[in-house]
Automatic annotation (TrEMBL), chain A:
<dbReference type="InterPro" id="IPR003594">
    <property type="entry name" value="HATPase_dom"/>
</dbReference>
<dbReference type="InterPro" id="IPR036890">
    <property type="entry name" value="HATPase_C_sf"/>
</dbReference>
<dbReference type="GO" id="GO:0005737">
    <property type="term" value="C:cytoplasm"/>
</dbReference>
<dbReference type="InterPro" id="IPR004105">
    <property type="entry name" value="CheA-like_dim"/>
</dbReference>
<dbReference type="GO" id="GO:0005524">
    <property type="term" value="F:ATP binding"/>
</dbReference>
<feature type="domain" description="HPt">
    <location>
        <begin position="1"/>
        <end position="105"/>
    </location>
</feature>
<keyword id="KW-0547">Nucleotide-binding</keyword>
<dbReference type="InterPro" id="IPR036641">
    <property type="entry name" value="HPT_dom_sf"/>
</dbReference>
<dbReference type="GO" id="GO:0000155">
    <property type="term" value="F:phosphorelay sensor kinase activity"/>
</dbReference>
From TrEMBL, chain B:
<dbReference type="InterPro" id="IPR036061">
    <property type="entry name" value="CheW-like_dom_sf"/>
</dbReference>
<dbReference type="GO" id="GO:0006935">
    <property type="term" value="P:chemotaxis"/>
</dbReference>
<dbReference type="Pfam" id="PF01584">
    <property type="entry name" value="CheW"/>
</dbReference>
<dbReference type="InterPro" id="IPR039315">
    <property type="entry name" value="CheW"/>
</dbReference>
<dbReference type="GO" id="GO:0007165">
    <property type="term" value="P:signal transduction"/>
</dbReference>
<feature type="region of interest" description="Disordered">
    <location>
        <begin position="1"/>
        <end position="35"/>
    </location>
</feature>
<protein>
    <submittedName>
        <fullName>CheW protein</fullName>
    </submittedName>
</protein>
<dbReference type="GO" id="GO:0005829">
    <property type="term" value="C:cytosol"/>
</dbReference>
<dbReference type="InterPro" id="IPR002545">
    <property type="entry name" value="CheW-lke_dom"/>
</dbReference>
Length: 546, 194
């Protein structure tokens, strides 16, 4: 395993080389079309990023040269420097030098950048187009004799999601094989399946590892957001970030992004006081907001603390009584944790007086549900006058599946997208009763259709899958699933949306019921059953035969 | 030191001052309480199934809560009411009346028919909820008040090994269940696959 630092360095070099290639391409374009503002802007952006990245990682020579080039290009952009042949030559040399520096970041024998070239850059920057001072000829850089491709590739998260799904499927099959091998008691099969077990496990962890990103990729967006919110609220806020290099599954980070944004906004708007108020209370004018990530065994702990006014527990209790969530006598006896749990009640927060008094709450139930949905934990500590801390304990990695959500007889279900073929809405007249099933024609293909409500909820003795009179309404929403190359249309009551879900396996004693692949929690906190398409198909076939 | 000193010689004073300390051990209280033949106590959570009282030892009960919204699971055995979300944990809710084929009794007039209670039972590596219609009560009683279950109980629906014993309190008879045995492996295997 490489150290984190080495990994960063590799990423930096790969990115920098990519920037270098782009710079070369753009400056060649610019040479032919000096008035192309778009290209100029792009060069400017690349140099700016390169400067910032190299400075952050400590490659000061690169950041220095990038800075000089950036200055030169900004002059060109402002028409203060002509894009003359002489200047172009110096700029090309400069970019070549950048390439040289990037390729040799690790080479201790690499000397200082050519002083003559640096001087030339200074000359064009400082003297503008006044060419009274001779530019000195420099030895041409010829670093690109060896063409090389980057060590890193970019990959769409979708592809990783797909790989993760396949790994999940593979694991299901693997477990099946293991159990079959146990049944058969064949030694050779047993040794192969135990090898298969180890390989799939390795594969699972490799794919999960490939999905990890730095928390910094989210954290680093916050300084700007905090600045904007603070400015709008006329507050002075100092944001402190720690633990940006902690790694977490990209999709988990995605799911908590809105929640974190919400909490940060809340902390500034309601938690932190205005500067004058803080001074009166003997606090510093500037409010402190701390966003911290740390590893906690298998999990990641995210903490957001402010040193604002905190939450008034008595006001929360009062509101809980007003909203009839609890009686007055009970409310008075509640401890801090119990009282704070009211804040996560749906709708509790939207009460205006709560947000004013307690300073917290708008949609905290939404935050809680988001954290629940990925199997995380949200806790909250507060001290009146001292501030509030939200702690989120998140799993580092988790299998997130795309699924289609729908409703049958008032119950929410999900079917993983990996099993869905298409979704169609058909008129009742397009369904035909054939034997004891319904069939329809989909683009020339005959597909068996079944009313899911009948299949799931009718008493088994009285199940009539081929009876159209049992259908509700005229237009039927049908999810076509495919399993073992066989298609089956499932008529559902209401079709919702496609969504990434985290499937929680059912715990005992329900784990052995294979009709359900697990459950997931919806954003509403409702339990949604994840249908197992293979088992559902099997159940349907058995019904017909039985 | 409350001793008078005529001379200013401090060395002597200190030497003479020693015997002035009061002797201890004058109060003759006994610190050992007379131990009445105290029995080992057991803490039970008592609830009603049908017309009878049942109980589970408190160590097997994680919490008692008002039953949250239950999501029914079609094509599962009748005694599985469904699943529910208790603080982010998804647990199954079981109906012991259905499970043991106990005839449901009518509710007392003061009970709210829309509210039921769930006893969250903690097994080794998972939790399960048991739904009851009346508010469960807590009860402390000496272990000696629980009799071993009589053997003829094996013939009735609740198999004997689920019953830890029968407690008699005043005119009430309480059947003490061993939840861990109810949730044992063979029981789980009785769940039919769809």
């Amino acid at each position: 395993m490489k150290s984190r630092e080495e990994e960063y360095k590799e990423i930096f070099i790969a990115e920098a080389l990519e920037y270098f290639d782009s710079l070369n391409r753009h400056i060649s374009t610019l040479e032919k079309q000096p008035d192309d503002d778009q290209t100029l802007a792009e060069i400017f952006r690349l140099l700016h990023n390169l400067k910032a990245n190299s400075k952050a990682i400590g490659y000061l020579q690169i950041s220095d040269v990038s800075h000089k080039l950036e200055t030169a290009f900004s002059l060109i952009r402002n028409k203060e420097l002509a894009f003359s042949d002489e200047v172009v030559a110096v700029l090309f040399d400069g970019i070549d030098m950048l390439g040289e520096l990037i390729q040799n970041v690790d080479n201790p024998d690499q000397g200082e950048p050519d002083p003559i070239l640096l001087r030339n850059l200074d000359i064009i920057v400082e003297n503008l187009s006044d060419s009274t001072i001779e530019l000195t000829k420099v030895q041409k850089y010829n670093t690109s004799k060896n063409l090389s491709l980057s060590e890193l590739i970019y990959i769409q998260i979708k592809k990783l999601d797909h790989m993760m799904n396949l790994v999940g499927e593979l694991m299901i099959d693997r477990d099946r094989i293991i159990s079959i091998s146990k049944e058969l008691g064949n030694d050779e099969l047993a040794s192969v399946s135990s090898h298969l077990y180890r390989i799939t496990e390795d594969l699972q962890y490799s794919v999960m590892g490939a999905r990890l990103v730095n928390i910094g990729s989210l954290f680093n967006k916050f300084p700007r957001i905090v600045r904007d919110v603070a400015a709008a609220e006329k507050k002075e806020v100092n944001l402190e970030l720690t633990g940006q290099d902690i790694q977490i599954d990209r999709n988990i980070l995605q799911i908590i992004t809105d929640s974190l944004l919400h909490l940060v906004r809340n902390a500034i708007t309601h938690g932190l006081e205005r500067p004058e108020e803080r001074e009166k209370k003997g606090k510093s004018r500037v409010g402190h907001l701390r966003l911290r990530a740390q590893s906690d065994r298998e999990n990641v702990l995210l903490e957001l603390s402010d040193d604002g006014r905190g939450i008034d527990l008595r006001k929360v209790q009062k509101t809980a009584v007003e909203r009839k969530l609890v009686t007055e006598e009970v409310a008075a006896g509640l401890d801090e944790t119990e009282t704070l749990s009211f804040l996560f009640e749906p709708g509790f927060s939207t009460a205006k007086e709560v947000t004013e008094y307690s300073g917290r709450g708008v949609g905290l139930d939404v935050v809680k549900n988001a954290i629940d949905s990925i199997g995380g934990r949200l806790t909250l500590e507060t001290e009146k006058g001292k501030g509030t801390t939200f702690s989120m304990l998140l799993p580092t990695s988790i299998a997130v599946k795309g699924a289609l959500l729908f409703e049958v007889n008032g119950i929410f279900y999900a079917i993983p997208l990996i099993h869905t073929d298409q979704v169609v809405a058909l008129d009742k007249d397009e369904l035909h009763e054939v034997g004891d099933v319904l069939i329809t024609d989909l683009k020339g293909e005959t597909v068996t259709v079944v009313y899911l409500h009948e299949l799931l909820n009718a008493p088994e003795a009285d199940m009539r899958l081929g009876d159209k009179t049992r259908l509700k309404g005229q237009v039927q929403n049908i999810i076509v699933v495919s399993y073992n190359n066989r298609k089956l249309g499932l008529i559902v009551d209401k079709l919702y949306r496609q969504q990434d879900i985290v499937v929680k396996p059912l715990s005992k004693p329900l784990e052995s019921i294979d009709l359900y692949g697990g459950v997931t929690l919806l954003g509403t906190g409702k339990v949604c059953l994840v249908l197992d398409v293979p088992a559902l198909t099997r159940y349907f076939i058995n019904r017909r035969q039985g | 030191m409350a001793k008078q000193t005529k001379n200013t010689s401090s060395d002597k004073d200190q030497a003479e001052g020693k015997p002035a300390v009061a002797e201890p051990g004058e109060n003759g209280q006994t610190t050992v309480a007379p131990a009445p033949q105290k029995d080992e106590m057991v803490h039970l959570i008592v609830f009603k199934l049908g017309a009878e009282y049942y109980a589970i030892k408190i160590e097997q009960v994680k919490e008692v809560t008002i039953t949250p919204a239950i999501t029914r699971m079609p094509r599962t055995p009748g005694f599985i009411k469904g699943v529910t979300n208790i603080r982010g944990d998804i647990i199954a809710i079981m109906d012991l009346e259905t499970r043991f084929q106990i005839r449901p009794a009518s509710l007392p007039p003061d009970a709210n028919p829309n509210v039921t209670y769930t006893l969250v039972i903690e097994a080794k590596d998972y939790s399960i909820g048991v739904e009851v219609r009346e508010m469960p009560q807590s009860l402390n009683l000496p272990v000696s008040r629980i009799d071993r279950a009589p053997s003829f109980l094996q013939d009735i629906n609740i198999q004997e090994n689920f019953i830890e014993g029968i407690a008699k309190i005043e005119d009430r008879l309480i059947i003490v269940l061993d939840m861990h045995r109810i949730l044992s492996q063979e029981e789980i295997n009785q769940l039919p696959n769809a």
